[in-house]
Structure formats: C-alpha cells, structure tokens
Amino acid sequence: MKKTKRLSRKRRGLGETGVLERIEEIAPRIEIPSSGVRLGIGDDAAVFRGTPSCDQILTCDWFLEGSHFLRDKHPADAVGWKCLARAVSDVAAMGGVPRCFLLSLALPATHTGVWLDQFLGGLRRAAKRFGCALAGGDTTRNENILINVTVVGETRTGRAILRCGARPGDALCVSGRLGEAELGLRLIRNSKHRPKRHDPRLRKHLYPEPRLALGRWLAEKRLPSAMMDLSDGLSTDLPRLCSLSGVGARIAAGKIPTVPIPKRGRSPDNDPLEMGIDGGDDYELLFTVPRKKWKHLPRSFHGLPITAIGEITEARALLLVEEAGRPRPLPNLGWDPFRKPL
User: Fold this and answer.
1) Residue 14: its pLDDT value, please?
2) What is the pTM of this model?
3) Residue 198 — φ and ψ, nearest 5°?
4) Which domains does the chain possess?
C-alpha cells in the first residue's frame, strides 16, 4: 500500500487514493514490538524480521461476499473482524503466534465511505485483540466485496503441531462448543432485517475468537499429536486430519459439546447435533492426545471447555456412535464452497 497524500473527508471514497487514505488513518496503526514489521505501509513492500529460533508460519484466507458473508445482512465491522480472525485461527491451530498480516481488498465505489470505515474499525479491533499488525497489501475496485488476508506467524523451531501425527488409541478432543456459529448464521439468514450485532446468539458467527492461547499452551506442553482448527465443520475437517495421519476415528454423539436449544425451539432445520457435526465457522481446535498424556489435559482452559469426543482408530473408517450404541458412517456434510452456498 503506497503512501498517499492526505484528503479531506468530503473527498474520501472517490478513488483508490481515498481508500488507501482511510486504511492508513483507521486501520491498525498499532505499536506491536513483537510483530517483526520493520517497514510497513508506505513503501512498495513490507519488511519483516523473524525471531531467532522460530519457524515462520504463513497462511492466507479468502473472505468473499456471497460465499462467506452477505452484504445486506452482515455488519461491516463484523466482516472486518472475521476476515482476520479466520486466518489467525490457522496460526492458532499450529500452536503459533501471529505477528503481522497483509490485506488485499476489492470493493465497489459505493462502499468506500461509511462501510469501509466500519470495516476498518472491526479490523483494527481484531488486530489489537490478536496482537497482529497490518504490514501492507493491495486495493482495487470490484462490484463484489472480495477480501484476502495473509498472516505471518511464528512458532518455536520444530514445535509446530501438524495434522499428520495422530495415532490409533489417541483421544480425540475439541475446545469450546460446536454449532454456535452455524446457529448464528441460520438466524441471520432467516432474518428479514440486518440483525443486532450484540445479540449473544450471533457473537460466535460474527466475531469468532481464534484459540491462540490454548493452541500455544498445548504446543508448549507438547500434548497434541495432531491438531487443526474447525473452520468447515467436524464432518469435513476430521477426515482431513485422519487422511494425513493415515488413521480413522470413532466419535460418540453424546459427547459432542453442542449449542443448547430449548426443546420447543428444535426442528429438523435446527438440530443441535447436526449443527455441531456439520456446522462451520466455529474456529475451535480439534486435536488428538496420546492416552499417556491424557492426565495432563485439563477439562477447561481459562474457562474454555475441553472435551474428549472419541478416539483415533487403526481402521480408516470415520464412525459416529449414536447414543443407543449403534455406529454409523460419518458423512462429510460440512462446508464446501464448491458444493453449497451461504
């Protein structure tokens, strides 16, 4: 993002210069000494200096209108928060610490005023929350809002937790409660008006919290044999972990921590177990722990529940054991951008 001349508020949003000006003025100009950014916004590229004895973690994530958010339903500040939270969650899943990020933003001219200001406000709050500095990026015009975030993180050399280490007999664990973000999405999708952003039922969908502290603690204690974040739903993400580890899994339906819904509010379209298994956007951690290390794993971490929902098996099948004790195959019905729309 090249440095631009200051513009008056009356002219903001009239072109790329105005957009860049707003990003410089509102977005995270935060002093984060640990970010590693030695040269950020204002030159042709950023300069990043890694920490000695650390491996760099690189990840990027798309956040697209129509696929990941709805322009007329999702608050702009939530879009700003979530586009960074999604990418930072990948760093958390490896037990790392985010340092800085690049923002690539395409948007229509009609959204370079108030919408952009609110978007950048949410992005700024997220950057401060996660300790992740904006180092640069790119902007352009497009009729749809397209966002890409690249995050640079770090972990101690050789300590990154991968997806490929699960072994038969390991306990399969999740953090938090599954299905909360899916419930929020369904409430927004079925609402005739833009929902109230402070509705607690919507918080996890609008303002997800990457499990950075838990991921780093698990890595420091060397407890997980494999780990990833739940972004596309348990039924979609678990097969990825099992495939790379060359194993299978048995999950107990009754142990999955689901979102509480009063029985009178339940329906075939609002089933807690289905949302917990297939719902995406929770950004909780899914990890495996060898049985010999199980005693060192707490039931909660700073108030965040940790639940064992099953075990890793040698047979590569993925089975869901119903409360009656009957096992059945676990179908992959989570989020897939090529299969289902928002």
Assistant:
1) 47
2) 0.88
3) -90, 5
4) 9-156 (3.30.1330.10), 171-329 (3.90.650.10)
